[in-house]
Please model this.
Amino acid sequence: MLFLILIVPTFILAFWAQSKVTSTYNKFVKVPSRGRITGAEAAAAVMRNAGIYDVDIVQVRGKLTDHYDPINKKLALSQDNYHGTSLAALGVAAHEAGHAVQHKVGYSALKARMALVPVTNIASSILPWVIIGPFFLGLGAMGGMLTQLAVVCYLVLTAFQLITLPVEFDASRRAKKQLVALGILGNDEMVGVDKTLNAAAWTYVAAFVSSLAYLLYLLTMVMGNRN
Model:
């Protein structure tokens, strides 16, 4: 019963969020900007305005695989967003450039997320094993220990997803502001950018809610075993 209350709604939210970002992106990737500036050019302009000249803008395969790599100083854009001149492409590209600006100015939330990356990677790698372990070992001493370890893993993941929220929201805020300030887009064109980035934000919210729900579910299992 608890599984139905806590976990099932997160699957629904995650499915809805992914569907929303996909449908919104597919809609506005077909709407060209008046200035015909590419996503790569927009990202370069945003970074140049912030005094950033040491970040390489590269093209990567896939759809919506865009990301900023603070370790290697690379801003990766998928093909549609690298070459594209659509409202969606410019919004996504400027958003990633927003992360580069965060890195340059030492945005505290980004620094905290970067610090959590190593331990988050460890937690993510061992989580599948500690999740399936109790099903094979039972909920005895060994199974209980694995469940407790799963709690620790989800605690790390939940903290990472929580700190990700302000990082992503702030990057979108910076992107929207710069697209208009630099004359890349007009105010009337920002509707497409707003909807694209707002839809993407829901995927981060869904990831946090899902992680938190699993954490609460596992905590109840641990408390139940102790009782």
Notes: The longest strand covers residues 56-60.
